[in-house]
Amino acid sequence: MDSIGSLGLQQQEEAPSCPQEGLPCPSNSSELVQECLQQFKVTGAQLRQIQTSLLDSMEQALKGQASPAPAVQMLPTYVGSIPHGTEQGDFVVLELGATGASLRVLWVTLMGIEGHKMEPRSQEFVIPQEVMLGPGQQLFDFAARCLSEFLDALPVGNQGLQLGFSFSFPCHQTGLDKSTLISWTKGFRCSGVEGQDVVQLLRDAIQRQGTYSIDVVAVVNDTVGTMMGCEPGVGPCEVGLVVDTGTNACYMEEARHVAVLDEDRGRVCISVEWGSFSDDGALGPVLTIFDRTLDHESLNLGAQRFEKMIGGLYLGELVRLVLAHLARCGVLFGGYTSPALLRQGGILLEHVAEMEDPSAGAARVHAILQDLGLNPRASDAEFVQHICAAVCTRAAQLCAAALAAVLSRLQHNREQKTLQIAVATGGRVFERHPRFLSILQETVRLLAPECDVSFIPSVDGGGQGVAMVTAVAARLAAHRCLLEETLAPFRLTREQLAAVQAQMREAMAKGLQGEASSLRMLPTYVRATPDGSERGDFLALDLGGTNFRVLLVRVATGGVQITSQVYSIPECVAQGSGQQLFDHIVDCIVDFQQQQGLSGQSLPLGFTFSFPCRQVGLDQGILLNWTKGFNASDCEGQDVVCLLREAIGRRQAVELNVVAIVNDTVGTMMSCGYEDPHCEVGLIVGTGTNACYMEELQNVASVAGDSGHMCINMEWGAFGDDGSLSMLSTCFDASVDQASINPGKQRFEKMISGMYLGEIVRHTLLHLTSLGVLFRGQQTQGLQTRDIFKTKFLSEIESDSLALRQVRAILEDLGLSLTSDDALMVLEVCQAVSQRAAQLCGAGVAAVVEKIRENRGLEELTVSVGVDGTLYKLHPHFSSLVAATVRELAPRCVVTFLQSEDGSGKGAALVTAVACRLAQMTCV
Ligand code: 0WK
Ligand code: BGC
Ligand code: BGC
């Protein structure tokens, strides 16, 4: 183990003077030795106290408690997933800090096949003392030189190399490759590094060295490398424990418990940094005068108190301080001391490990003490062995108490009565010290009896593990690139959205003039929004959305009362014959009338028919084409009011007075207009999507008259059917369109509405799976099933309150087994698809409100938009994204979005009521 210098202790020569301050010299030697040994005895109660207090500090730190500052730091490491075992490739690993005054460079080849392993090549470099205490740049330049020297010996040519940086000091990580040093420990004290991003410092040094192109992909704490280097097949190690020059542990914590992460999904590896644990209440009673002396003479006074009782850098020193004390008291070595005994760092871990090793025997102890310039008597050797054992036993017990705290935390997280867990161990105290592990195991069994712990020595000090993290980081980075590449076409720029807005304006103008346009701009013969004077009972039908509804709408002074009944339209009816469909509709009406005791009454009926109809009157609508999965025969080109009346006619004893047919956008506008007269736009974003608005009659070429207004059903679902949106269309949109029953049609709708978003996501997930980015490249039957990924899943997955496990549950129901990275990527795909939909919808609304503003030559327009549709109403972010896009693209319009409470059935009844009122006025 390291020389005195690297012990992190200040240089001091100790004068062979009287016994140490505060310690009486008792009468006989063994009593004094016993007295010293006693000091290192830690009781079960004290260990439990330390375990409990450390657990409290861990929980305080996880919660982000600032004051009092928790005794441990609990640093997130951005390592969220355990290796697949499929990681492969060649990686360079640079280890700095784990083993004190040396750094190690490794070349690790991961075979990517479980259990297949190539022995890493490595080289160790001793770090000169002045480099450990000098300027930071010097240290990183030293590291970069060692890297080159190591690579010079290997046939690497000028290939780009990926490097994993094992940096064993407390760091704030803000990414797998971004880490700021909090404070040096273990004898390092370079200037200009604390508070800096050590990855950048290494990158700069490698740059300055300029010999190899090395990409520093990941930085990890040595405990993480140890945990990740766990022999495959042993079952994932979820704790990494290092006792080398310093000591520390990491473990997999639930991300939702880590306040700083603000992530409620998956697990994340936390570096506990228990070396800084210093709760006086718990540690005070076990701290000896020797611990205080050691700390007092250390480079970092008062810091890393717990580490200074366990770390290999300090065990030798503690033994030395005890031996020096006992020698001065004349109890050992005949009261003779030697320069080595009085010199800090004179006794190293190796010495202690050997001297304590029962197999070493007294002869070996003698030899070591003689090497230290001492002339031991027979009894001295035995005493020295006891003292070594006492110091190391305490270290192992304290380490066990800390580990037991971590195990209790895991047990708490897993809500398991008994916890079965594998702990990866690393560090030369484990390798060199004969009994450290067994004492640790024994004490853990005492302190955490319900935990079944298997200790797995890490194969090569964590090098393999660091390469694993680097491979995972490289894989995640590569997957992230592929994910970004795949999602980039969904990320629309302001310019692209403004272009959609302008194109829509152009298509609107052409449509209104009756010129060729993908926007039909259909007059609806609704000339005014309700003025509140409407009265009466009306029947209303609402066909075309998720549900078919029959409604009784009572419009009275006190407002509007609605009684409604939802009926299903089976796919076979929606795609059967027209006669069958309209007979089914009449069946529902009759059923509703019977239920409401309206049989035989012929109430005025308003028919919300949410499909493109060329209206030639309020009660005449020629169906232009079906959309949204409807495809009943013999309807397109027909007047659907006639089809309904014929169906009524086929049904004996039913009389219905069909007064108006309205589109659901119109019904929604009217319904909201009843409350807010500014409501002059109707918007549907549900199964399908569409909008209507009040246009100046003079601008509607197909309708006579040039004063007043006419509500125009834009049928914007068909926008882009002329190819004008092809620059935005992705291959996934094309797949969805080709698989639809109306390929080439409703292109705008197929990028926005609920019937299609789930399918766009499914096709995108299939593509990412084929790239190996998702689900380990495993294509599942589930994911290949059409319409299996419902659009409502997007709303659920994107909801802020949903933890990752629920996202996982949705996907596992689809037969997908996935990692948290997968689930996070599925979330990003959903976000990209729904965001594009909302922005396109926003660009459409911006085009409409700007048209109204310009129609009226207003500087600024205040207008409300009545909205309905499941996607708009249920998706957690859709509505706010639409509003934000409208604010961006139509800054001179103050737009209020009114969510329709009663659906468009009420609107249809109001249109009917207006028609009846106007009809009465013309009769009078
Ligand atoms: C409810 C309206 C109905 C419209 C539907 C659209 O009453 O007219 O068609 O919203 O939303 P969807 O049910 O398709 O999600
Ligand atoms: C450092 C830890 C490291 C441990 C073991 C401690 O001094 O603060 O980051 O994991 O030593 O090397
Ligand atoms: C139809 C429109 C309807 C919209 C919303 C579209 O598929 O063509 O008429 O307004 O869906 O339901």
UniProtKB/TrEMBL annotation:
Designated name of the protein: hexokinase
Protein source organism: Balaenoptera acutorostrata (Common minke whale)
Enzyme category, top tier: transferase
SUPFAM superfamilies: Actin-like ATPase domain
Residue stretches making up the Hexokinase C-terminal domain: 239-472, 681-914
Keyword Nucleus on entry: no
Name of the gene: HK3
InterPro entries noted in UniProt: ATPase_NBD (IPR043129), Hexokinase (IPR001312), Hexokinase_BS (IPR019807), Hexokinase_C (IPR022673), Hexokinase_N (IPR022672)
Subcellular location: Mitochondrion outer membrane
